[in-house]
Design brief:
The complex is a heterodimer. Chain A is built from eleven helices and two strands, in the order ααααββααααααα. By secondary structure, chain A is mostly helical. The longest helix of chain A is centred in the first third of the chain and has 33 residues, at 3-35. The longest helix of chain B is centred in the N-terminal third of the chain and has 23 residues, at 2-24. In chain B, a hairpin with a 2-residue loop joins strand 11 and strand 12 (353-357). Classes of the chains: A mainly alpha, B alpha/beta.
Chain lengths: 289, 406
């Protein structure tokens, strides 16, 4: 394998992983930005996306149907949760949210285990992206190219949504001063529901897209939630652009770090976080804590 | 002043009552039950990346207890399982095991899932006066340098699995081999044994790499395997990590270039990754396709209960409990000392054929198998087909050893 081929394929690998990390991190950071809630259930909602995706793909025979319906279902579950439980707690201190979202993670995790069983389930990549392409004579799975592409599309969509739409404007405003937004006649509660739903839906997209790589399994929440938190902390809590940069940084460090120093594979992500926190305690684009 | 005294007196009375109640608790169940059940503790990794393995051990234990109890139990006593979830964490495994001893009164363990958990638990066995019959722990050190007298291993160990793969490779045309393992006790131990085997077999052992438990992206590791130029790669993985590795390796078309061989494979793997597991060659600790009457009976019983064929660790858990049962019957009790000396010479003829515990290091001596995953009628996923069997004296290392002489 030539050096160029190596760098091209590994960079594409890193991009595909960054996309998955971004789907989780950006939802978590949006929710934190507007609601000041650290959503511990985010990994479990990602897992729910994978399992619902499995069932939809199974029933309809189409991965695309799964990619459309599963995130909607996960977003709906998120909104219901916000409406039924979180809304009653906004006057409480932050620790209440930690307990409640952690509780949701446990309950939802058990429900998934009861409903789908304890064994990992197969979700096949869509037919269109099941093959390989040769990049500089090296075989590369088209599904990973698709993941990288999906990441770019979603990132641009969210950016345009936050920047160009009225709802995006309100979300940004509410994250800075919710009282003022409320005083100007906007229902902040509705806004919170919407953001929580969108954040959870993004985790659902991540779950469906990750399933062909890692299968749908009841262990996938625990391994992913930590990565998502690291992304949010590195990027700066509440920063959209921060979570994008952090996802890219973590993925590239992980892929190239694992290659050159495999014995430190577990440490790279945390070393990166440590470095960022020493230089910028609030994260790359966060406010100083 | 008087008020204060009153409160103090009430508080004293309250705590005294509570103290009496607490002290009395351990005594009343003994009076209520005629014959004390045989209490078996199973601190399992039911969740976490190796949760699928823990779940198998749970099913194996539960069906065995149910079947045994329907036959009237053992030595006139019913079997009672105490199942706990450790999450695959060694510190939690020790804590849960301790609770099982102190709170529930267990003096027998089985099913501890990860080798790292088992290695953390065995030093405590003497203090707890407890016996531990391993059904799953691969790490060779458990019957070598980390051996303790209260530990028994009924299952095929990592060195034994690595040995079966090595014997198979000796006969093959593949010369250049590489290895990948999960980065913890079992993976490291298995690859170490495999490396020593390959060197003695005059094969070219190119190198090895270890992936942390819970790795999600295997692209770097797959690249390393491709770049190594190996014709065959030896894999020591289980659970979610193994599924992710195989699914991604197939997406990279790795099996077109390199033959995948593994120390052990569960049916949960081909069920989760489908055709990505096709063509995999592996040693297996228990295979539902073993051709003997005891096994046919077991497979039928299992299918009736769970509607599926028994998996690798389910068979191993069943066998471990059959070994334990033979020990308890021989000892006539579950007294730790009596049970230990009985287990030291137990030999049974069960679902895997003859299995005999040896006194020197408490390893159960048994035959080894190699399987290949193929398509078969009646199964929606690739299933193992036995392609080689090696006699017990070929696959079991010498006493207290992890490597082989020939």
């Amino acid at each position: 394998m030539s050096l160029l081929a190596f760098f091209v394929t590994q960079s594409l690998n890193a991009l595909s992983q960054a996309a998955l990390l971004f789907f989780l991190g950006v939802g978590l950071t949006l929710i934190f930005g507007i609601m000041r809630i650290v959503n511990f259930a985010h990994g479990t909602l990602y897992m729910l996306g994978a399992f619902v995706g499995y069932s939809v793909a199974r029933l309809t025979g189409s991965f695309w149907a799964a990619l459309l319906l599963a995130p909607l279902a996960v977003g709906l579950v998120g909104m219901l949760f916000e409406f039924a439980i979180l809304r009653r707690l906004y006057q409480r201190e932050a620790s209440a949210f930690l307990m409640v979202t952690f509780g949701l993670a446990l309950v939802l995790g058990e429900i998934i285990r009861l409903a789908w069983g304890p064994d990992a389930l197969q979700v096949e990549a869509p037919q269109t992206f099941a093959g390989i392409v040769f990049l500089l004579d090296e075989p590369f799975p088209t599904y990973r190219l698709f993941l990288a592409g999906a990441g770019i599309i979603v990132a641009v969509t969210i950016w345009q949504f936050l920047d160009r739409t009225r709802l995006g404007l309100l979300i940004r405003a509410a994250s800075q001063n919710p009282e003022m937004v409320s005083a100007l006649g906007t229902d902040v509660n509705l806004l919170r529901s919407a953001v929580f739903g969108i954040g959870c839906g993004l985790a659902g997209i991540g779950g469906v897209l990750a399933a062909p790589l890692v299968t749908a399994s009841v262990g996938m929440a625990a391994t992913m939630i930590i990565d998502a938190f690291v992304i949010v902390i590195i990027g700066g809590m509440g920063s959209f652009l921060g979570s994008l940069i952090a996802a890219l940084l973590v993925a590239f460090t992980q892929v190239f770090g694992e290659y050159y120093l495999p014995d430190l594979a577990l440490a790279f992500m945390y070393l990166l976080m440590l470095l960022v926190l020493v230089v910028r305690p609030g994260g790359l684009l966060g406010k100083e804590a | 002043m008087t008020e204060r005294v009153g409160i103090t007196r009430r508080a004293v009375t309250k705590s005294a009552v509570a103290g009496i109640a607490l002290a009395a608790v351990p005594f009343w169940p003994r009076r209520a039950v005629a014959a004390e059940p045989i209490k078996i503790g199973m601190p399992l990794a039911l969740t976490g990346p190796l949760g699928s393995v823990g779940q198998q051990l749970k099913r194996g234990g539960e069906l065995w207890a149910k079947t045994q109890n329907a036959k009237g139990g053992l030595v006139g006593r019913q079997i009672q399982l105490f199942i706990e979830d450790t999450g695959g964490n060694p510190a939690d495994a020790v804590r849960k095991a301790q609770e099982l001893v102190e709170r529930d009164g267990c003096n027998i363990f089985t099913g501890i899932t990860l080798s790292s958990e088992a290695l953390a638990v065995v030093p405590k066995l003497e203090e707890w006066k407890a016996i531990f019959v391993s059904s799953d722990n691969g790490d060779g050190r458990l019957t070598a340098e980390s051996f303790v007298p209260n530990f028994f291993r009924s299952n095929i160990s990592a060195p034994m699995g690595a040995r079966a793969v090595s014997l198979f490779l000796r006969e093959s045309e593949w010369q250049n081999v590489y290895a990948i393992g999960m980065d913890y006790a079992w993976g490291r131990n298995s690859v170490q044994v495999f490396e020593s085997e390959m060197k003695r077999a005059k094969k070219n052992f190119i190198g090895s790499v270890f992936s942390p438990i819970g790795t999600k992206d295997f692209s770097t590791y797959i690249t390393k395997i491709r770049q190594s130029g190996a014709e065959a790669v030896y894999i020591t993985m289980a659970g979610d990590d193994y599924n992710a590795f195989l699914a991604q390796a197939a997406q990279y078309r790795l099996p077109d270039k390199v033959q995948l061989l593994s120390e052990v494979v569960d049916l949960t793997v081909p069920r989760a990754v489908g055709d990505a597991a096709l063509g995999l060659i592996s040693s297996m600790r228990y295979c539902f396709r073993l051709d003997n009457p005891k096994n046919k009976e077991f497979v039928a019983l299992w299918q009736k209960e769970y509607g599926a064929v028994p998996d690798n660790n389910e068979g191993e858990q069943w066998q471990a409990l059959q070994v334990l049962a033979a020990g308890i019957e021989k000892a006539g009790s579950t007294d730790t000392t009596a049970l230990r000396s009985a287990l030291e010479t137990v030999a049974i003829d069960d679902i895997k054929g003859r299995v005999a515990v040896r006194k020197c290091d408490h390893q159960a001596v048994q035959a080894g198998y190699m399987v290949k995953l193929v398509k078969a009628d009646g199964f929606s996923y690739p299933v193992p087909q036995i392609i080689a069997t090696y006699p017990d004296d070929k696959t079991t290392p010498a006493c207290n050893k992890m490597t082989f002489e020939d």
